[in-house]
Amino acid sequence: MHYSAVWAKTLSGLLTVVACTLSFQESGMHLKNFSRPEMQVRIVRILGMVPVYSITSWLSLISTTNESRLTLDFIRDLYEAFVIYNFISLLIRMGGGWRRTIFYLEDQPRAPHFFPLKLCLPPVQLGQTFLILTRAAALQFVLIKPLNGLLLLMAHQKGGLFGGFFSVNAVKRIAAITDNLSISAALYSLVMLHTALHNLLEKYHPLPKFWAVKMVVFFSFWQGVVLNAMVKVGFITDVEGFPASAQVSGIQDVLICLEMVVAALCHTVVFSWREWQDVDDLYDETEEKPLIAKILKIVDFRDFLTDWRDTVSGDGYEYEMRQNEPRNMCSNKSYTIFD
Questions:
Q1: 20 to 30 A from 220, CA-CA: which of 12, 26, 74, 290?
Q2: DSSP string of 116-175, one letter each residue
Q3: What pTM was computed for the model?
Q4: Euclidean distance between the first and final Cα of the chain, in Å?
């Protein structure tokens, strides 16, 4: 084995330990000071992207088979999509839940699209439909990103799909195109929602949180695109025992391990547990629950399944608005809403 490969695996392992330690420490402080559960549940899930990204990248680096690397990529893609959904869900809850967020949006003027879409699309009417479509844009990414990873894994295992009608390279190209379109729609909806709710969420400092999430997804996606382009133009070529594709995969895994240390440091600032100790909300949770109950609440994904069902069927929104109605709609406070 080349010394460079040994050093890459060792360095990546050390970076993974550092990143996970920082992330677990911050998550532990959130669990210890679990005063705003419906927000902190989603924050801890977002913090989980650091250990998921770094551990899967390091395991991919030391893996010996292509199938195991693709499986780890699939796990990472699945969690990446889940993080996008949780961040949009966090923004809505910081706004006071569906009812208060919709009331706020309906009082706002139409929002123009960003360039270049503003040249061909009219301004967006803000309100309930806008909020539903925003959540739908996040949920489609949760479906398409892992589905593409699963199809790519199946294509590698079987040498293609549908009896060889689609080759492995064809599946890769289709997955790359649909992934690009899907992540663009999800991130664009995230930008539109963040812009529309900026004034309402100002006390929560949403912009640093937005960039902390977006940059992780942005770098992990586009650095893969750039590295593969470098192979296409011949900048990265096969060397003894290391084909160009393996080099690209290894370089990206090392970069992700390094980036996760930076991301973990950023998360300790922008998603700090201290931020939620002095927030004056109508819905406080004063009863202290055991640690296991808090962890179970974080890994309870029924909120995601309910959102998916309601988005697909169109049902449940009126009930959700009535169920989550704050006791005092005239209050200027921000509300933490419980499902």
A1: 26
A2: TGGGTSPPBPPSHHHHHHHHHHHHHHHHHHHHHHHHHHHHHHHTSBTTTTB-HHHHHHHH
A3: 0.81
A4: 54
Residue 35 DSSP symbol = S
152 Cβ neighbours under 8 A, 6+ residues apart: 70, 171, 172, 175
User: Region 161-182: what's the mean pLDDT?
Assistant: 85
Query: What DSSP character marks residue 201?
Result: T
- Rounded to 5 degrees, what angle do the CA atoms 138, 142, 145 make? 120
Q: How far apart are CA 310 and CA 317, in angstroms?
A: 7
Q: Which amino acid does the sequence have at 102?
A: I
Distance from C-alpha of 328 to C-alpha of 331, rounded to nearest angstrom: 6
CA distance 65 to 221: 22
Report helix, strand or coil for 243: coil
Residue appearing with tokens 């990143």: 19
Alpha-carbon gap, residue 137 to 69, rounded angstroms:
28
Amino acid identity at 8: A
- CA-based angle 191:184:244, to the nearest 5? 130
Residue 42: is its pLDDT beyond 50? yes
Q: pLDDT grade, residue 29 (50/70/90)?
A: very high
How far is it, in rounded angstroms, from Cα 57 to Cα 63? 10
In the block, residue with structure tokens 């109950």: 293
Residue 46, classified by CB atoms within 10 Å of its CB into exposed (0-12), middle (13-18) or buried (19+), is buried
Contact between residue 30 and residue 44 where contact means Cβ atoms under 8 Å apart: yes
Q: Which amino acid is at 168?
A: V
Structure confidence by residue, pLDDT tens digits, 275-302:
887 655 544 454 567 888 888 888 888 8
pLDDT tens for each residue of 83-133: 888 988 898 888 888 888 999 999 999 999 988 888 898 999 999 889 888
Residues 6+ positions from 8 with CB-CB distance below 8 Å: 61, 250, 254
Rounded CA-CA distance 297/318 in Å is 25
Task: Please tell me the distance from the alpha carbon of residue 148 to that of residue 142, in angstroms, as a whole number.
Answer: 11
What does the pLDDT average to over 141-162? Answer: 84
Q: What local confidence, expressed as pLDDT, does residue 327 receive?
A: 38
